[in-house]
Design goal:
homodimer, 151 residues, mainly alpha, Arc Repressor Mutant, subunit A, 4% strand, globular, DNA-binding
Chain lengths: 151, 151
DNA sequence: CTGGATTAGTTTCAAATGTAACTATCATGC
DNA sequence: GCATGATAGTTACATTTGAAACTAATCCAG
């Protein structure tokens, strides 16, 4: 009796597994800064990008955190209103609006970073340092391959 | 001069990396069945779950594909309207509404599965089979750990 | 039995998101 | 130097999504 040539078990299907894992991790992390600091995922990512590489324009932020410019624009609007980031006028090109963390934003950033790193550390806890490197490396390759396959 | 004790580089931050990788893969896969078959991600996952384990109630589907019942309910409504799935009345408990693929749904499922598996295969292409197993195993551990950490 | 608590699933309303159109500024070719 | 097109960012509208309220059916304690 001919068995089906191909079967798809969601549980073992890589794209599905990646999706579920990423979602679970993302939600856990979200709990760290959503409640206490009132940030959305995108807002936090914008702050993280600026924390490391300010000043950046909205476009540069978008490229860095892989978000379209509308999403970035909205996150930036929210952060500006709360005074967590500031615009630095660019005299040579007034279309550009470079951004950086405000003093208040730096303080918040400084509080969240240790929480985020601690969460990452706990997540990695079951893995040896070789295994961590291995996972990172393999994830990199998958990412490169996925980009390659993107039509 | 005291350097900051902790720094967070988004590019090397595991939750962020997982999120970006999963999103890229998910979008690529989405292209395979959204255009040609007009399915949303959730709809496809519902069909995939039913393809392997029907009959399942909406709740059971939700547990399997890690989706809340509202999302499942909406996906199911869309699939029912298109005649891709059917309800099997449950005489012993009329609250429950077990679902299964219709003939038409099975046909579509049978067309999508090979496409999905082929994509997965191409994604894995740069990895040896040991590396695949390794990645899967490490991802499993991370997932278990993430569940553990979930408050 | 029967009234309150549970469970399955749907609907509703508000918030988040994506696409496309829009404004403002700058770069370029003639 | 000025029309055309490109770029940065915002706004508007339609769709999707999420949280909570709701309906219907079942379970269970007394």
């Amino acid at each position: 009796m001919p068995k089906p040539l191909q079967a798809l078990e969601l549980e073992n299907f890589l794209p599905y597994r990646l999706s579920v894992l990423a979602q679970l991790v993302s939600e856990s992390l979200h709990d760290l800064y959503a409640g206490p600091f009132g940030l959305t995922v995108t807002q936090w990512r914008v702050m993280a990008a600026l924390g490391g590489f300010a000043p950046l324009t909205a476009s540069e932020v978008g490229a860095r955190i892989v978000m379209d410019k509308v999403a970035v624009s909205r996150a930036v609007a929210g952060l500006l209103k709360r005074g967590l980031i500031e615009r630095v006028p660019d005299a040579t090109d007034r279309r550009r609006a470079p951004l950086e963390l405000s003093a208040q934003g730096r303080t918040m950033h400084g509080r969240i970073v240790p929480l985020a790193l601690a969460y990452e550390e706990r997540l990695y806890e079951g893995l040896t340092s070789e295994q961590r490197k291995m996972f990172d490396d393999l994830a990199d390759r998958l990412f490169a391959q996925a980009k390659q396959l993107r039509v």
